[in-house]
Amino acid sequence: MRREVPIAITFLVGMFMIVDFFVPHAYVSASAEELKQWGTIIIAASILLGIGNLLRVHSKKIARKEEGWGYSIVLLAIMAVMLWFGLWPGETLGPNEMVGTVEEGSYFNWMFLNMQVPLQATMFSLLAFFIASAAYRAFRLRSAEASLLLIAAIIVMLGRVPLGQALTQNLPEKAQLPWLTEVIMEYPNMAAFRGILMGAALGVMAMGLRIILGIERSYLGGEK
Predict the structure, then answer these.
(1) Contact 142, 128 (CB under 8 A)
(2) Are 62 and 69 in contact (CB under 8 A)?
C-alpha cells in the first residue's frame, strides 16, 4: 500500500489534468485550478525539507571531519545569518526596519545583492571556460562533421563582431561574414534547435505518461 496509494493518486490527478486540457468546462477548470494551488503549496513546503536535508548532510560531514568540512561550516553559518535577518522575531526583540524584511535597504537585501549575486555571476562566468574547452575538444576531431562544425563556428564568431564585417566589407553582400552568419543562424541552426525542442517535448510527454501510468516509479524511492 505504500506504493499503490501514491501511484493511484498520481494516476487520478494526472488524468484529471489531461481532461482539464481537453474539456473546457467551468467545474473542471475550477477543480484543476484548485489542484494547481495545492501543487504550489507542496512545492513551497519542499523548501523546508531541503533545508532539513542540507542541515543533516553537512552536520554529518562536519562531525566526521570529511574532506571540505570547513566549507560546510561556512555554508551553515551563512544560511543561519540569512535566515536570522530574513525572519527577525520583531515581536520579541522589538521592530527593526533593517531586519525581518527583504525590502530594498534591509540587511537581507544587501547581503543578497552584494554576496549572493556576485557569487552566482562568478559561477556562471566559469561556464565560458568550460565552453571553450568543449569547443576545443570538438574542433580537433578529424572528421567531416567536425570540420563543418569548425567552419560554421568560425563564420558565426567572426560575423558577430566588427572584425568580421571589416574583413569582408569589400566583398559582395552574400559573401560577407555577417550575411553568412545570419543564414547559418536562421536555417541550419534554427532547424537543429527546433528538432531538439521537439525531441525534448516528446521526451517530457513520454515521461509524463510513464509516471501517470505507474511505469516510472523512481520518484517513490528508486524502484524502477
Answers:
(1) no
(2) yes
Number of helices (H), then strands (E), belonging to the chain: the values are 11, 0
| DSSP code of residue 169 | T
Of residues 204, 217, 222, 224, the one with CA closest to residue 5: 217
What confidence tens digit (pLDDT) does each residue in 25-48 have?
Answer: 898 899 999 999 998 998 888 888
* 40-87: pLDDT as tens digits: 998 888 888 999 999 999 999 999 988 889 999 999 999 998 888 887
Instruction: With 0.85 as the threshold, say if the pTM is over it.
Output: no
CB proximity list for 81: less than 8 A, separation 6 or greater: 111
Smallest CA-to-CA distance from 141 within 131, 150, 152 is with: 150
Contact 61, 72 (CB under 8 A): yes
Q: By three-state DSSP, how is residue 223 classified? A: coil
